[in-house]
Amino acid sequence: MREKIVTQEYDQVAKIYDRRWNSYNTKTLTFLKNWADIPPQATVLDVGCGTGEFESFIIRDNPNQQITGVDISEQMLLVARQKFIAHPNVSFQIAGASNLPFANHSFDIVVSASAFHFFDDPVAALAEIKRVLKPDGKVFILDWCKDYFFCRLIDLYLKMFNPAHERCYTQAEFHELLTSANFNIQRAAKFHFDVIWGMMVVEL
Length: 204
Ligand SMILES: C[S@@+](CC[C@H](N)C(=O)[O-])C[C@H]1O[C@@H](n2cnc3c(N)ncnc32)[C@H](O)[C@@H]1O
What we know:
The chain is α/β, with parallel strands linked by helices. The chain has one domain (2-203): Vaccinia Virus protein VP39 (Rossmann fold, 3-Layer(aba) Sandwich). The chain is 43% helix and 24% strand. The longest helix has 19 residues, at 2-20. Residues 3, 6, 10, 25, 29, 47-50, 53-54, 70-73, 76, 96-97, 113-115, 118-119 line the site of S-adenosylmethionine.
């Protein structure tokens, strides 16, 4: 049910998404790219890939990186596909985080940026990420962090006024979810930028 509302919301904003979120995307995705330091030969899955901006940052340095992006918004994926017409190694599919259309142990790396707080069944999403990850694979998740005052405020505001919003997590709540899903947290950080945003990141 919630997925439908999220899909509608992102279908509507897809054409202006990159312009509206340019500064936020540049900061968060550059951070994630540097933090994850993905080897050029790794196969990568991006869950909630949106308009493929993370893929753009990766491909600038590693033009042959094998990356698959999934998202529930066909319009966001349309924008993403247009960016990578010349890159057959980058592909996009419509799929929800809780139902990934890939065989077990398909990817070396799974990433997800600014999307986890939308997942209406985070436990199922984490189980799916674990299933499609190779046994020695790595996961990097970046998302808003409710330990920061403005994030708590935004979370409250969105809960009241935006039916697409699921929930933000504190770092402790997020880590609890991850360990319950049998992930080992290898590295974790949280940081603040642009007054409002409080983010957290994990390597699993
Ligand atoms: C804030 S955007 C972030 C997009 C991209 N990761 C980025 O950082 O530019 C969140 C994206 O997550 C997608 N999304 C939300 N819930 C999802 C789900 N359950 N499965 C897959 N994608 C989802 C939305 O459609 C949207 O494109």
